[in-house]
């Protein structure tokens, strides 16, 4: 059995940890007895999450961290080392969705999606991998990609460009780390009931605005919200992530139905002559 790091007293850090899937993962790790550093870019999400934790809040430390900012990653590492010593579980979960076709996209859309979804994961690895290797204890990195990291949905071009990148980065890292104390899993969720439909409202002004007109944007958000409401509970996904770390799975899927989609992609690739 893989020597996994999910043990009481160990330390985890989750990005985008104050809402949705990240908060689900954080709660499950706290229940397992870990100290969890919950990081997020949104102060309001962190406040709400802290209240929702109730008595479990003693296992959580809330720290602001914008994953697209290298300087903030450095500060997070110093905080971990000074206050906690060693980190054992790193969940690179923060990510944002953009609505609309690539044909109507702007540079701002690309910058935002790539810098949060792909650079955010890469900066996390660059910042913490040397630390995880240096302490030598069992450690695990989980990156949240998406089913969009394996197949491209309608209007999913920008998002998938980043999320395919996360899959490649993490598959490569898992190979490079064979035989070391650190392993890697890739979470590829299908629909999960979170706040992801609302991401256009969370976009920082530095990353511009979506080019779609307001009515079209509202229509797309309402549709996304309806689809996600049928999706999985983030706490359930948190439990799947814990099991995936314990079993040292390369991929963690949340939904059996997606296998047909993967088979269709495989068949399309093999049909090339
Ligand atoms: P969510 O909106 O509920 O949670 C995402 C959190 O990330 C929010 O608290 C937000 O403030 C934070 N965040 C946004 N930009 C950030 C930044 N620059 N730095 C740090 N934190 C930032 O959404 P959800 O669905 O829980 O998203 C988590 C991850 O799951 C994302 O990577 C997303 O792409 C992925 N995902 C979600 C699916 C779904 O159906 N909800 C399906 C597949 C993947």
Word description of this protein:
By secondary structure, the protein is α/β, with parallel strands linked by helices. The chain has a single domain, classed as NAD(P)-binding Rossmann-like Domain (Rossmann fold, 3-Layer(aba) Sandwich). Helix content is 48%, strand content 13%. The protein is built from 9 helices and 7 strands. Strands 3-2-1-4-5-6-7 form a 7-stranded parallel beta sheet, with helices on both faces. The radius of gyration is 18 Å and the shape is globular. 41% of the residues are buried.
Helices and strands, with pairings:
Layout: E1 11-14, H1 20-31, E2 35-40, H2 43-53, E3 60-64, H3 70-83, E4 89-92, H4 107-135, E5 139-144, H5 157-176, E6 182-188, H6 199-202, H7 214-229, H8 234-246, E7 251-253, H9 258-270
Parallel strand pairs: 1-2, 1-4, 2-3, 4-5, 5-6, 6-7
Helix pairs in contact: 1-8, 3-4, 4-5
Residues 15-16, 18-22, 40-42, 45, 65-68, 93-97, 116, 144, 146, 189, 191-192, 194-196, 202, 228, 231 line the site of 1,4-dihydronicotinamide adenine dinucleotide (NAI).
Task: Provide key terms for this protein.
about 270 residues, alpha/beta, Rossmann fold, 7-stranded parallel beta sheet, 9 helices, globular, binds 1,4-dihydronicotinamide adenine dinucleotide, NAD(P)-bd_dom_sf
């Amino acid at each position: 059995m893989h020597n996994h790091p999910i043990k009481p007293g160990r330390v985890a850090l989750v990005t985008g940890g104050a809402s949705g899937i990240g908060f689900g993962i954080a709660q499950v790790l706290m229940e397992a007895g870990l100290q969890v550093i919950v990081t997020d870019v949104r102060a309001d999400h962190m406040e709400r999450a802290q209240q929702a934790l109730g008595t479990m809040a003693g296992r959580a430390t809330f720290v602001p961290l914008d994953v697209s900012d290298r300087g903030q990653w450095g500060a997070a590492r110093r905080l971990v080392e000074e206050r906690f010593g060693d980190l054992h579980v790193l969940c690179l979960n923060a990510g944002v969705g953009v609505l609309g076709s690539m044909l109507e996209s702007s540079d701002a859309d690309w910058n935002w999606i790539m810098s949060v979804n792909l650079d955010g994961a890469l900066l996390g690895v660059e910042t913490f991998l040397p630390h995880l290797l240096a302490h030598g204890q069992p450690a695990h990195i989980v990156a949240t990609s998406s089913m969009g990291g394996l197949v491209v949905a309608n209007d999913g071009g920008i998002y998938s460009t980043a999320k395919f990148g996360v899959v490649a980065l993490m598959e490569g890292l898992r190979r490079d780390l064979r035989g070391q104390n650190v392993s890697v899993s890739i979470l590829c969720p299908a629909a999960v009931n979170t706040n992801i439909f609302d991401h256009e409202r969370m976009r920082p002004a530095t990353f511009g605005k979506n080019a779609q007109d307001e009515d079209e944007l509202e229509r797309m958000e309402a549709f996304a919200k309806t689809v996600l409401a049928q999706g999985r509970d983030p706490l359930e996904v948190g439990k799947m992530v814990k099991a995936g770390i314990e079993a040292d799975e390369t991929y963690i899927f949340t939904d059996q139905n997606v296998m047909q989609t993967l088979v269709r992609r495989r068949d399309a690739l093999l049909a090339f002559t």
